[in-house]
């Protein structure tokens, strides 16, 4: 007979054994997955032999087939070209973070196919040599300011600070470009006035100096005043040899050297003086003037004629007949402006209307008055002629002595540069009136 204590112990043991038998199949149904960390993967990849071409598979795969089912695989692990497979990610907030591959181990992103570079087809007519000028492609280092605050800053800094040139210097450069315009042949400029004492000779002299100094061709100033003109006195003070001497020997004049015997020189300007003896000067008529100009135009590109104050003498007729450009000198005063306008009336009445329309009026401001409306005077001549230039008062010109360009004030020199540029605009042919305002001369700042 078995005791009750032994029966209870046997029942407890049987219950525990039954519980373990029920739990064991559930645990065996889910095999244990080996854990592999990053260090094992890197060491296995470095130790795995490289796959040779033509082999049926990797050594790791063959080794995995020989291993018995349900046992962990030992040996090198094959390198997987994508993310390492692992168990499904647990719900958010439970379990470890999902595995992410190391940077650079995933497949390369797909790239768009590279298009081959195709050279553009050349266009022979896309441009011309006219586009490759010096002004277009050269960075000018010579644009150094010379005046105003820009010039002071440039000089004070020793050239380290260059603010560039201002509007006045830019306008001056543009005027010089126009003055240096090529001249296909000879060009004759007549400077005339009905009234004396308005600065006609000073205008002719300064115009000749500016053109000669800023051009590379030959320029000569001819004094055709029959009343002992003073052009040579204002330029070279040499009057021993005159135009009368040239006329007497004109048949033997065949070269530039022959003409140089009868001229004097100031800078680059040649000067041919008028006869100083009034008795001899009366013989200088239209025919002789035309013969002299015929010789001069063979050797000089620009001939500037100071025609004197009279309009009815014979030489004046020849001057107007041969002139390519006409300059009429007046002043912003009642008598100076009135006489200049009457000069235009006389020219129109004698068949020179085309020359009047293409003429340039110079208002010499040696004599000025605040009571005179200079704007109205300027507007009157702008309506009748191509352009108007005002020459300000200059102490150097007012002395009546020899003229030197380096002694002129800057505004005065700018005015003569503007006059020369306007006349040079007609070197390629006649310039018709466009009704534009007078040539404005910007003052330096």
Question: Keyphrases for this structure?
Answer:
445 residues; alpha/beta; 8-stranded mixed beta sheet; 18 helices; disordered N terminus; disordered C terminus
What structural class results from the helix and strand content? alpha/beta
Helical segment count: 18
Largest sheet: 8 strands, mixed
The radius of gyration computed from the alpha-carbon positions, rounded to a whole number of angstroms, is 52 Å
Query: What is the residue-mean pLDDT, rounded to a whole number?
Result: 76
Order of helices and strands: HHHHHHEHEHHHEEHHEHEHHEHEHH
The proportion of strand residues reads 5-15%
N- to C-terminal separation?
A: 139 Å
Contiguous uncertain segments of 5+ residues: 1-10, 13-31, 44-73, 431-445
Spatial order of strands in the largest sheet: 3-4-2-5-1-6-7-8
Number of strands: 8
Identify the overall geometry. Answer: elongated
Helix content: 40-55%
Verbal overview:
40% of the residues lie in helices and 9% in strands. It has 18 helices and 8 strands. The protein has helices at 4-28, 38-47, 59-66, 134-137, 148-156, 167-179, 200-214, 231-235, 243-248, 256-260, 278-281, 286-299, 314-322, 334-349, 353-357, 374-384, 395-398, 410-424; strands spanning 187-192, 219-223, 264-266, 269-272, 302-306, 325-330, 360-364, 387-391. Strand 7, helix 16 (374-384) and strand 8 form a beta-alpha-beta unit. Helix 6 (167-179) crosses helix 18 (410-424), helix 7 crosses helix 18 and helix 12 runs parallel beside helix 13 (314-322). It is elongated. The termini are far apart.
């Amino acid at each position: 007979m078995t005791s009750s204590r032994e029966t209870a112990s046997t029942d407890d043991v049987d219950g525990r054994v039954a519980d373990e038998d029920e739990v064991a199949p559930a645990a065996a149904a889910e095999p244990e997955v080996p854990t592999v960390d990053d260090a094992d993967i890197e060491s296995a990849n470095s130790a795995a032999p490289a796959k040779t071409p033509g082999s049926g598979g990797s050594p790791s795969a063959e080794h995995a087939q020989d291993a018995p089912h349900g046992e962990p695989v030992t040996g090198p692990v094959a390198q997987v070209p994508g993310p390492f497979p692992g168990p499904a990610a647990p719900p958010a907030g439970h379990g470890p973070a999902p595995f992410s591959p190391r940077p650079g181990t995933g497949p390369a992103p797909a790239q768009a196919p590279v298009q081959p570079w195709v050279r553009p087809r050349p266009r022979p007519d896309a441009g011309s040599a006219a586009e490759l000028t010096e002004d277009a492609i050269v960075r000018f280092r010579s644009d150094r300011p010379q005046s105003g605050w820009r010039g002071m800053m440039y000089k004070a800094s020793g050239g380290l600070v260059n603010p560039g040139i201002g509007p006045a210097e830019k306008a001056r450069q543009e005027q010089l470009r126009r003055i240096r315009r090529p001249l296909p042949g000879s060009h004759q400029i007549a400077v005339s006035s009905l009234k004396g004492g308005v600065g006609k000779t000073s205008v002719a002299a300064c115009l000749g100096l500016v053109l000669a100094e800023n051009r590379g061709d030959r320029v000569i100033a001819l004094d055709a005043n029959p009343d002992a003109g003073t052009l040579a006195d204002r330029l070279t003070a040499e009057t021993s040899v005159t135009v009368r001497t040239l006329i007497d020997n004109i048949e033997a004049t065949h070269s530039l050297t022959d003409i140089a015997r009868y001229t004097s020189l100031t800078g680059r300007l040649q000067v041919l003086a008028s006869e100083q003896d009034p008795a001899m000067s009366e013989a200088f008529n239209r025919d002789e003037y035309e013969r002299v100009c015929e010789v001069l135009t063979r050797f000089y590109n620009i001939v500037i004629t100071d025609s004197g104050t009279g309009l009815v003498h014979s030489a004046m007729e020849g001057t107007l007949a041969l002139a390519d450009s006409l300059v009429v000198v007046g002043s912003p005063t009642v008598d100076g402006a009135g006489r200049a306008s009457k000069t235009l009336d006389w020219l129109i009445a004698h068949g020179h209307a085309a020359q009047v329309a293409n003429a340039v009026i110079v208002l010499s401001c040696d004599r000025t008055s605040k009571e005179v409306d200079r704007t109205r005077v300027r507007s009157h001549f702008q309506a009748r002629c191509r352009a108007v230039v005002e020459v300000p008062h200059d102490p150097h010109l007012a002395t009546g002595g020899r003229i030197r360009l380096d002694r002129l004030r800057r505004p005065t020199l700018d005015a003569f540069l503007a006059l020369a540029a306007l006349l040079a605009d007609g070197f390629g042919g006649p310039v018709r009136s466009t009704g534009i305002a007078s040539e404005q001369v910007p003052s330096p700042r």
